[in-house]
Amino acid sequence: xxxxxxxxxxxxxxxxxxxxxxxxxxxxxxxxxxxxxxxxxxxxxxxxxxxxxxxxxxxxxxxxxxxxxxxxxxxxxxxxxxxxxxxxxxxxxxxxxxxxxxxxxxxxxxxxxxxxxxxxxxxxxxxxxxxxxxxxxxxxxxxxxxxxxxxxxxxxxxxxxxxxxxxxxxxxxxxxxxxxxxxxxxxxxxxxxxxxxxxxxxxxxxxxxxxxxxxxxxxxxxxxxxxxxxxxxxxxxxxxxxxxxxxxxxxxxxxxxxxxxxxxxxxxxxxxxxxxxxxxxxxxxxxxxxxxxxxxxxxxxxxxxxxxx
Amino acid sequence: xxxxxxxxxxxxxxxxxxxxxxxxxxxxxxxxxxxxxxxxxxxxxxxxxxxxxxxxxxxxxxxxxxxxxxxxxxxxxxxxxxxxxxxxxxxxxxxxxxxxxxxxxxx
Lengths: 309, 107
Known about the structure:
heterodimer; A: alpha/beta; five-stranded parallel sheet; 17 strands; B: alpha/beta; 4 helices; 35% helix
């Protein structure tokens, strides 16, 4: 076997990466996990999680992250705060270029997750942090007794809109369809909540104000009617985009930019695996990311055993 | 390491931040804010590394509502970097440690 700095490099420290790290550390692999921001990924900004088993009352995203991080630290997983800039996967010993140096490794697990998608409407960037937010748990309490708008109809949009009703006096939920996509139990709660007013078949077309958000423009896509609503904040949850900019064409991606991987989490390149939200998976949940991470670590370990022979 | 970070509030803001001879990095946070908890260790590491050149402070926005509203803070964590009483830079949300290092070393 050729020499390399590591047997395994895990890129990304969300649930998938941390789980892969937990399994790899317990398997005593020579492993490093590279995290660009802070461990936890999107879970850090999740206000409340009640579909992750083992916590009957549910728990907050930050609490779950803290528990997972404590658990991986028990097994001395090496986590470095750094960013992967690019990868060269053309040789059996792969090169992972960080912001300050290049690592060599036999296997790689890509677990970089996804980021909230922007709408691309005027005012979205200008007012970010000034009333425009992607994180109710960060910013919700700033909107006590205020009026806010939320955009989206999936689980995140509905769950976080419900969370905002704890603070805001009114929440306009803007959704481009005539019904929600979120889980039935969340839909029931939202529809029964008298602080939430639904704007069906509608899209947000602009965000305006002086220094902070003051009003939004909304258009009904069925009738074409346009209106302006005075709001103090605007929260956007319209899906995600995969974090794959550093991959370029090093592994095969699907038409939406997600990494294509098989049942063993193996990508188009032998020894390179993908796990969690960054993968072309039918469901993006903490529960599924954790399963992906375990499988990726297991197949990476097998791959390393095979090349040692 | 945590002892390197000074707790400041509405009453001490002027003396500790605006009148400070050294540049000051203020971390606006609240106990309910998960991402604030997540970046706290990163700020502590920076305080350990740059504490001799820069003053590190944190301001609980729940207990001190006047200061965050003066600086138009609607989202936390927000880090504001002050020098000679003026705002040099403002960072909203979780960013890479390298970006914070860059901001600090620019002074």
